[in-house]
Structure formats: structure tokens, C-alpha cells
Amino acid sequence: MQSASSPPETQVTFGNPSVGTRLDLSVVVIAHNEEALILDCLISALEACKAACDSGLLKSFEVICVDAASTDATGSNARTLPVRIVRIPEQLPHGPGAARFVGYAFSRGNHVLFLDGDCTVSGIWLREALAVIHRTAAAAVDGNIEQAIELDTSFAAELLGATKQSWVSQPTQVQTVGQAIFRRDVLEKIGPHDPFLRGGEDRELSQRARLAGYSLIRIPAISVSHYWAGKTRRLSRVIYLQSVIVWSYGDGQSVRKHWKDAAIRTEQRVRYLRWRTVLAYERLLLLTASILSVALGICVASVWFFLVGGVASLAFMSLPAEKGEVRFGYRESLFASCEILVRHFSFLFGLLKGTRPLAEYPLSLVDSVDR
After folding, report:
1. For residue 6, what are the CA distances in angstroms to 75, 106, 171, 233?
2. How far, in Å, CA of 46 to CA of 59, rounded?
3. What pLDDT does 54 receive?
4. Distance (Å, rounded) from C-alpha 106 to C-alpha 366?
5. Domains, in order of start, for the chain
6. Which pTM was predicted?
7. pLDDT tens-digit series, residues 191-216
């Protein structure tokens, strides 16, 4: 693997794409230790782009795999396909925001599609999204996301329900797009994903686009199937909480970055301080009170502590559930309370940390292999 020279200064400041012929579309696939899924993702991207070419919606494209400091066979697996490999060394920031930023810096497309390595993209959605972005002034277009997880627990049921609440049945203007096609000229004006955000980079970029006056469109086709739990499709609470930590930390960084912007502060306040937050803390207090009361009742053999524990348990069980919420019982509510604590502590840590200017990312240290 040879070390690539730094992209031109105009690229570092988000002017022109990397040296080379301008293409219709660049697909940037980001991956960290995705050896089991990366081939499925890249093959789906190649096939979707070829189908779009056959339909006359594309004349040229490239697929770039950003190997974000993987320690498994992600890179070697990707090299078996006709894609360009860009590797971020471990010593550099290599989270999702950094990987998208690096992929954009090395891309050449008039439009850029950002994909995660644990997803497969739909060719039908790609063709429809290209048609929409060609005939509208939208900055970006995404679609309905399918969570490829087993519906085997109440936790999974709630997650799938929450995902479907963001689905649309017709082209709709939305606040945030995720794995979406962006216009390059828009990214040149507002800047790409922030490489120093630990998470929530899609939300922060969408906020910048909206504040600059651009619209973001979601179309009803399924855009990607997200194998969040890998091919086993069984999403554990631990994996989910790890994602919560990353998202919330990044949201805190974003608020610190845009502290003077009241609109962004308001959006995040609504996201982190709403009725469900109060309900979760109330559940945590009642659950703690019931457990402690029963434990003390056993220790001191006092009927009063058993009585307090019973009352707290009944109050806990009678708390209303938010629309679409299916968690009931001690285990589920304890997890919900832990999730809120994790979200808020991660958000506060990110708020204290902040971020850095995009131009400080050392692109000259990124490795690239041209195909």
C-alpha cells in the first residue's frame, strides 16, 4: 500500500474534488472491522450503480471503501473487488464522521452517496433517488431504512417500531438524512461531515444544510438494509448501548460547536429533554425504591419496607408508556433507565470536549490504493 500525497489545498478547504476526471457519482462505503459484511455491501453498491447506468441515470461512477483502521480482513476482502481502497491509520481519528470525511476528500463524483459497511443498498432506491435529486433542488436524498434484526425481544420490537416511525409513504422533506446521496456543490459550500465528531455526524451535517437554506428529501423506497447485529441479526442491548454512547457524545460535541445557534440548541434540547426522559427517571427512582425496600425488608424483617416496596412496584407498573413503546417489567424498564443515563452522561462529556476545525484533519497521512 503506497502513501497517497495530500489532496490539493482546494480539496482540504472543500473546493474541487480529488485530481482526476469528474464522475457522476461516488459511493463512499465506510467500514471498521466489517470483514463479514463488507463484500455484501460493496457488491450491492456496484450492482446498484451498474443498474443505474443501464437505466441511463448514470454515465460514470466509482466505489470507494474507506477502511477505518480495521484490524480484521476488511481491507483484504475489499481488495478482491474493483473498488478504490482508502485506509485511515489507527493513530488518526477514524470514527464514522472521519471515515465519511476522508472518503469525500478522495472522491470525484458530482454526487456522493455515503454508506455504512454493515448495510446493503437497494438498486431500486438508488435509481429513484438519482431521479429525484436530478429534478429537484434538494441537497440530499435518502430513503426508508430497514433494520435487519430479529423480532425476538420487546427491545427489538421497540427499535423496529421506532425505525418505522421515521418512514415516509411519499417524498417528504425531513430534518435529518443518514445514508444519503448529497450534491457535491452543496458539500463544497457547507463543508462535509465533521471528522472530529465521535457520532451524530449525519445529524450535524443535516443541520448545517438546513440552516444554509437547503432541503433534505426522503423517498418511500427502502434505501438500505442495516445489519446492525451482523448476519446473526440478533441485536444485543450491549451493542445498542455502545451506539447510544457514540451518538450522544457526538450530539454533545455538536451543541458545543454550534453553541451560538439557538435553532440547533433547541433541536437537541427537544431530543434529550422530553417527556420520555422524565418518565424514564421516574421509573428508575421507583424501581430503585422498590428493590431497596424489599432488600431492607428482608434484612430487618420489617413489614413496612415490604409495603413500601410493593407500593413503589405498583406505581412503577402503572406508569404510562410513550406511544409505540412496548417495554414492560423490571428488566425492560431498568434497561430504559440505563439508556437515559448513558445518553445524558455521554452528551455531557461530548459537550465538554467539543470539536476542532475540519481543515485540521491530517489527510496527508491517509493511505490510498488506486484501481
Report:
1. 21, 10, 39, 39
2. 14
3. 97
4. 10
5. 9-235 (3.90.550.10)
6. 0.82
7. 999 999 999 999 999 999 999 999 99
